[in-house]
Each structure stands twice: as C-alpha cells, then as structure tokens.
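[audit] Reproducing an earlier prediction to check determinism. Same input, same settings, fresh worker. If the tokens differ from the archived copy the diff job will pick it up downstream; this log only records the rerun itself.
[audit] input (816 residues):
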Amino acid sequence: MFAAEDEEDLFAALPSALREALEFGSAPVERDRESLDKSSTGSDRSDSPPRVKNKTRRGRRSAERRGAPPRAAVELNRRYAACTNAEEVLRIYAEKGVRNDVNVATAFTRLARGAGGDSRGRGQRDACRRVRQDPRFKGLLEEACMSFPEYGPQALANCAHSLARLGCGGDAQERRAWRCLVESAEASCTKFSAREGVNVAWACATARTGSATLFDALAVECERKAPRLNAQELSIAAWAFATAGRATERLFRVLAAEAAPRVGTFNEQNLSNTAYAYVLAGVRAPELFDAVAREAAARAEELSAQALANLAWAFATTRHPAPGLYVALADQAERRVQALGAQNLASLAWAFCAARRARSHPRLYSAIGREVCARLRNPGARRHFAPQAVATLFLACSAAPGVPYELFDALSAHALRRLDEFNVQDLANCAGALNAVGRDTASRALLWSSIAQEAARRGGRLGGLGSAALLSVYCRSQPFERELFLAVARESALQISAVAPRHLATIVWCHARASRYDPQLFGAALGEFSRTSSVVPADAACRACWAFARVAPVNEASALVDALAPRLLAGVGAALRNQQQQYSCRPQDLACLAETLCVVGFTPQRLGLTHALDAALSATTTPWSDEDLVRLGLARAAAQQQGLPFSEHGDPPPSSEAKPFNLHVKAAPGLTIDVGDAKNKQGFDCFKLDDSVYDSNNMHLRDAGPVAVRARLLQGLGWRVRRILPQELAKLVRPPPPPIVTPVQNAAGLNTEFNPAAFRPRPPIGAAGLPPSMGEFNPAAFAPRPGGAAGLPLPEFNPSGPPPAPIATTIAPHCA
C-alpha cells in the first residue's frame, strides 16, 4: 500500500491525458495516446503526423488554461444553449450543475434571454426578479463568484453582460458577486477583445458598479481598439462611459472620428444613444452631430417615439444648429402625438422651447396641449403622467404659442393630487410656469399657495439649489409667502456650510428683492462668504454684495465687500477685457456693484475697485435697463459728491409712475425727482413697496440702503423731498380730461357748424376752485396735508435733523 504522500506524487507523475481520464472517469481520447506513449517510452515518434491545434479563440484559451474541454462539459454546454426559458436552465443546473466557465457563461446568458417577458418585452422586470429570487440561481451565482478569478476574458464579459441584463446588484450576495467579477476583469483588461471590453463597460454602467481603475483601463483599450468596433459597439461604448461618469475627451474624440463616417450604418437607436451620450459626457463633436442630424432628418419616419424625444433633447441641450432636423422631428411628433408617451411629450415640449423653436412650430404645441388635456381627463391615462413630466410640460408650454388655455388648469388639478410626490426642482418649475401664465383661476391660485406650503413643510430637505430656485420665483409675488421665507432662512442658516456659494448668493439676493432682512441668515452668510471667498464666482459675489447693501446694516455690507474684493476685482477685470467667461460679471452685475459701492462708501481701500468699475462701465456697449440706469445714476451722484471721477454712464429715466406727466426734475447729475420745483428745491418722489425693508429681528420698517443714500444726497444738496404713494401723486398731477362734444341740432334736425366756444373743459379734480395753468408747474398746489391732503404748508426744513418720515410708513409692505 502507498502512503497518501506517495499517492499524490505518483498521480502528479502521470501523463496529462491519463490524469484527465482518471479525474473525469473516462478513457483517454485517441489523440492523446501518442503523448502517453511518448512519455512512457521516451521515443520522439517523429514519423507520426503532427497534432492539429484548435484555431478557435475559445478552444485556444481553454487549452491554455487546462487542456481541451472534456466531452461531458461540451455536451452540458449544448444542453444549456438549447434552453428557451429560464426554468429549463435552472432545472438543468439543479440536475447537472456546471463543469467550467463556459457552462456558467452560457447558463447566465440563457437566463437573461429567457427572462425577457412576453414578445413585446412586457413583464421583463418581474421575470428577472423571479429568477434572482430562485434558490437555484443563488447557488449558481455563489459557485460562479468563487471561481471568477479563474475565468477567461470571454467568459467574464458574457457573465457581466448577463448579470447586468438580469438586474443583479440588489442584495448582498449579488453585490459581492459584482465585486469579485470587477476584480477579475481588472486583471484581464488587456486580454479583452474590442467587443468584450465594450460589453464589460456597458454591464458595469448599467449595474451602477465598477471601479475607476477598471473604467480607465477599459477606456485605454477601447481607444486603442476603436477601429475594430462596429456601429452598434461604438454607440454602446459612448453610452457606457458617459453613463458611468468616466468619459474622457480623448476617448470621445476617437469614437467621434470613427463614428462620423459610419453614421449611415447606424440604426435609429444608435443615432439617439450616441447623441445622448455626448451630451451626458459634455464633449462637443460638431462633425458627428452634423452627420447625425442629416441622417436622422432623412430617416425621421423610422425613428421611434423615444428616439424622437432623445434627439430633440440632445440637440437642444448642446444648442447645436440643426433647423432641418427640428422641422422633421416636429412634423413626425405632430403626426404621431397619440403614440408618444407622457415623458416623450414633455421632453419634446421642453426641447423645442429650450432651442428657441417654439414660436416656429405652434401647431406642435397645439397638438401636444390637446393630447395632454384629453389624457388628463381619462383616469386610466392620468396615472402615466409622472411629476417630472407634469412640471416639464407646465414650464415648457408656459412660454410657447398655440397652447390651449385649459391645459394649465388641467395640469394644476393633476399636480394638486400628487404634490407630495414632486421633488424640489419640479415644485420650482411649476411655480415658475404659474408666475408666467398667471394665477387668475381657482386651480392655479390654489396650486401656487400649495407649492409654497409644501416647500415650507419640507424645510431642510429643499437643499441649496431648491431653496434658491423657489425663492427666485416667490420673491416678487403677491401675496407674500412669509412661511416659505422663514423656513428657508432658518434651514439655510443651520446648514450654511452645505450650501454652495452660488446658491447662497441667490438666497440672500431673493431676500433683498423681497425687502426682507433676516439677521440669522445674513450673519451666517457673511461668515460663510468670508470663509470661502476664494471660490465664490464673481457674478455671485456681485449679487451677494448688492443684497447686503440693500437690506443689511452698512457695517455688514462693508465687511462683505472687503472680504470679496479680490473676486469682485477679478470679475470686473474680465468684463473690462470683454472675456465672456462662464461666471464673469454681466452689465447688470456691474450696475449692482456700483450701487453697492455708493451705499458702503468709496473708501481709499476700495479706490482700485472703483476705478476698475468705472472703466468697465465705460467699455460696456450693452444697452442698460431703466433699473440699471437708476443704480448707475445714484452711484455717479455719490461718487461726485466725494470728488471721485466717475464717468457719465447715462442719466436715469423718470419713474414709471411719473412718465405720463413729464414733470421730473434733475436735482443733480444722476439724481432725478419725480415732481419738483428746481427754484425752491422742493418736490415729491413716488413711493415704491421695495423702498422699505422689513427687519425680522425687531419687526420694524426702515429705508433700504440705496433709498437712504439718495435721501442723504438730496438733503446735502438742500432739497426737501417727500415720498408719497402713486395714487396721491396721481391726484396732484392728474391731466385734464378730454372735452366732451355735444352736437347742437338746428330746427331742420341738422348739426350746426363747429363752434369752439361751446366746448369748455371741466375744472380739474382736486383743485381749490381755480383752474391752474395747463403748461406750468405750480408748487403751491402740491403742498401736502396730513394723510396726503393739500392746503397746508410744508414743515420747516431742518438740515441737521432727521429726514421727514414717509407717508408709506403707515402702510405695511408686502414682505411684512
């Protein structure tokens, strides 16, 4: 008898063919007897014919691993390949198991194909879930997980592709299997063929797994082997790397160079997937998009509903000019509007609106509106409209012509039923659409207030971006949504470090537009801006400084301007050099910065910023808005009072309330009074709601920063100016009514000739009995009485005393 060690040594000394026969219980095959005789006799047997090597890739790799596959494994693989459904595969596995990596890959492939639902693909998700929950599948997965490191490249690629199609990755066992497979694929990256590498990348992107090391290695191999990929593989490779977030510009340039000449061989899904992938990767490929646009426009009738929506979305997002494609897509969408899904309708509506093509295709929006209204009236079809589709349709159709007016009421009623399912961006989109189309119906008005209440209820779950988006819609609305602003201010102050600087700037800017000052929020924002001053974008810095200058105390605004001075100077310098960078200062940002400097003061430390701003304003050729001209005029007046050179960038126009009367008077360069007497230096300004700021700390009203600066400048020039409400101003300077012509008939019943003396104008309303001259300004007629009446003289002017309190302090603004 042999010992155990001697048995192992003897078994190892046997020829390979005999060891294989002993392992699998069969006699050695005929072709291996030569090797047996050669090893036993030591003869060379040169007269025997040479053995024919297996030339196939699978045979070669199997021979390299452990010799040719045994006959039992080949027969078992044929049985797996003949299966037509998942149950047959699992039954064979329960009876026979698997013998090598080829059996495992074939079993997984047939499971993925057998769990495909019905002939139209319906029920595939449920069928895959049933397969994954089967104990036999779990046993097969566990056996494969233990042997993944020994698998060849083709078996690994096939297993990864099949597991992704089955939707694996939900439980711990499936995640462990993916980790083992990814580690094995990392070691075999250079051995994958071009197709196998693409399949592994697609599988990892679909299953949302894979490591950065694996994707980077696959990208290098895909770039090197790109000429061997066919049209479908090029499209799949672009989609996989873009979806996984591991797209490199070099790889996508290579893929675009290979795909552009072969676009004619793409099917409709390849066309839409390729365009979608390049948008997702953020890589511009004009030649490829031109080819895709020509091919898609020529084959528009062959495009599916999903392809129509994806192509429109991709070209609208990249803003690539393709007028012929838009015409073809609009024509097909209008014809097949009943076959489009809810999300496809929303994507098309948004794409044409974002591409500035809505007014060119009013019939498309009319067809979309009618179809959506018809589906929303049907309770069965109504459930297909997800919150994102409703919000996108709301926002896109609000800026499009030809939309039925009842569409917005139908969307409002549907949104009210599922408002708790809307995310923050959907809420903001619906609110923005309501702000554009109006809230003159009950359903829209109810949705407007319900969105504000839902957002205030969520509080901390809004996030920085969601809070900024919602406040930008509600900051100028009536009635004022106080609870929303309180919730956003409270949560933003508590989570200030988690809010991006750009979103934080928008939040404080919205508070300033709403004439509301929250000490807790503004104090936390000041600290956060000071801490992150080096990463605050220039345009966001301008908005934040303007918000502080308008509603916050002067010392807080001065501290913020000094902290952000380097970023402000960089933005002004970019605007001066006319560099259209992503976050460079726009003309309205420069006007806000000028008004900020006049509030905080043109100190010597800010002299460099002042001169740079003056130069940038002089170099700006964009037409200024009326609001910007008012800001620039105030800054000019404040700078000239301190003796600083500040160029004339245009006189501010009169306020809109005083325009019909043409009674504005220029008190100084940059300062215009609505109604006034330049000789006696007295007059009136029209009061606006945002002239006062509501301080939530002590709950009182005070003048906004620019309003206080204007009052101080006018007081220094010796003017006595009071602010009155627009209706009071209209009573004082109301124009004469038109004459009423009453024809006089003679005895024959005919009208007499025109007699100018018969048409005497009525006395103006509000006068003391004597009609004033129609072409002159009479300051005595505008002496206010308490509450806006006339007849009493103005109070004595005291330059050293406080300015007279405006009448509007008795009226609470909209933010109180």
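[audit] rerun output stored. Observation attached for the diff report: The chain is about 55% helix and 5% strand.
[audit] end
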